[in-house]
Amino acid sequence: MSQRITIVSRLFRPEAGAAAYRLGALADELVAQGYRVRVLTTVPPEGARIDDAGLDVRRWPVLRDKGGNVRGYVQYLSYDIPLFFRLLFTKSDAVVVEPPTTTGVVSRIVCALTRTPYFHYSADVVSTAAEGIGVNRTVVRVLKLLERWVLNGARHTIAVSDGVKKDLLSLGVPEDRITVVGVGIDTTRFDFAPNDEQVPAKKLVYGGTMSEIHGAEIFVRAFSKVADKHPDATLLMIGQGVDVPMLKDLAADLAPGQVEFRPPQSAEHLSDEFATASAALASVKPGVGYDFAFATKALSSLSAGAPVIYTGVGPMASIIRDNDLGWTVEWDDTAVSEAMDKALTDHPDTARRVALSRWVEHHHSLQTVAAHTVDVFNQEQ
């Protein structure tokens, strides 16, 4: 009989976001390799089109913030409290757990009661991030204790980068129980396929979450410096997050009429926007505890054929610079605006877009990352 794997996450397809795409690809790969997969997740925001073909996805309604995110401890608990019973009555041979820490605590308790091994998929380290953004020291200490308890109860921990692995080691996770599988994006959904209907446009596209981690206000400020020179250009901000209201006010003040905000869109819609953009935008703000973060939105846009303007910290900066995938600039309004000017002046041709897309397919396919992750399960079962 095939092994039963349960994936526990508040985010799953069709929601936009790295975790949702990553776990969707993992579920697909597990099924392809003969596992029976069940996903315990949430009901997506209104209007999202659900397509769970081939998967057993169980969804539960949860509280969301004003931006539509399951973000914040009240929102987390609206998922975690029912999860205790949902997971308790789900027969599993192994469980895959994602952050936040509260979900990990519930999962470890249930897995201990049912004597089920679990794997922790670490895209970040919550306590490190909390410390970086100035959360109360007592709260950070409690988070570290809980996170260490969750991680050390896992049969194995899967890390997305060496930076995450370093933080896991600092929490006392044994090195032989950590595997770095890398970061990838769904190149079947973010893809560049030239066609006659694509009309290049003078636009810069930001697609993804807008929060204090990303500091997307730098793009609005930088765009305002080139808006007069490029009156026919548009800054398109697609996504949700706690910073959206502030960004809308800032855009109305600095570049009225040239900045457009849209709610989260499907991967296919984002791909179409990237395919005709002068450049895509991505960032990780320095000094907020996410210096190790891998900005997957940059990979998504590259795969869809858009060169990237990147500012801030994280491994994506050197990847873009070393592989000629766009512009890597300092965290400075003027530096970003100069890159924007170059992008809007020198629009990428079809050959350039095809080359960018092929680079991502070769180096950062989510399907390859998912296969590496399943290899960990196969070795540990």
UniProtKB/TrEMBL annotation:
Glycosyltransferase subfamily 4-like N-terminal domain location is 18-184
Gene Ontology terms, MF aspect: glycosyltransferase activity
Say which domain of life the source belongs to. Bacteria
Which UniProt keywords are listed? Glycosyltransferase, Transferase
Is Metal-binding one of the keywords UniProt gives this record? no
Q: Which SUPFAM superfamilies match?
A: UDP-Glycosyltransferase/glycogen phosphorylase
Q: Does the keyword Membrane apply?
A: no
Spell out the Gene3D superfamilies in the cross-references: Glycogen Phosphorylase B (3.40.50.2000)
Q: Which PANTHER family match?
A: GLYCOSYLTRANSFERASE (PTHR12526)
Name the record gives this protein? Glycosyltransferase involved in cell wall biosynthesis
- Look up and give the organism this protein is from: Halopolyspora algeriensis
